[in-house]
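Progress note, sequence design subtask.
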């Protein structure tokens, strides 16, 4: 089997590290090429702000399915009743949508962002473009 190596940069952020950001950097024919790319990227703006431990190399067999069964979508239908009329603006991210509504209602930053918070429910709703 032919092997390929996916190089990604991933980190968590937010008050309780409740958000993840992952960037696919490239797919390489050898682990060595992926490692050389890490050396280059760890000096670039943005990437150099994080530890080298945020780079991940995953090995895959070419032409192989990775997901072999269906999935169940968890729908985000629980948004605060006061926000039912709100919809994300064009190209507005879920977090920007949630921040905008929460700031309008409670004032800038005067709200919680934990897993069961109104903010988090609005963010999930906004990530889906206002669709449930």
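Output:
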């Amino acid at each position: 089997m032919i092997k390929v190596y996916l190089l990604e940069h991933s980190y968590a952020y937010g008050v309780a590290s409740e958000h993840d950001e992952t960037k696919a950097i490239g797919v390489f024919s050898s682990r060595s090429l992926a490692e050389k790319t890490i050396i280059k990227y760890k000096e670039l703006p943005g990437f150099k702000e994080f530890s080298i431990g945020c780079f991940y190399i995953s090995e895959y067999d070419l032409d192989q399915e990775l997901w072999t069964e269906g999935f169940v979508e968890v729908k985000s239908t629980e948004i605060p009743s006061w926000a039912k009329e709100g919809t994300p603006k064009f190209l507005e991210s879920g977090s920007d949508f949630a921040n905008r509504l929460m700031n309008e209602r409670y004032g800038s930053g005067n709200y919680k962002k934990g897993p069961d918070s109104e903010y988090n429910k609005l963010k999930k709703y906004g990530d889906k473009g206002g669709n449930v």
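Strands lie at 3-13, 19-28, 55-61. Work on this subtask will continue into the next period as scheduled.
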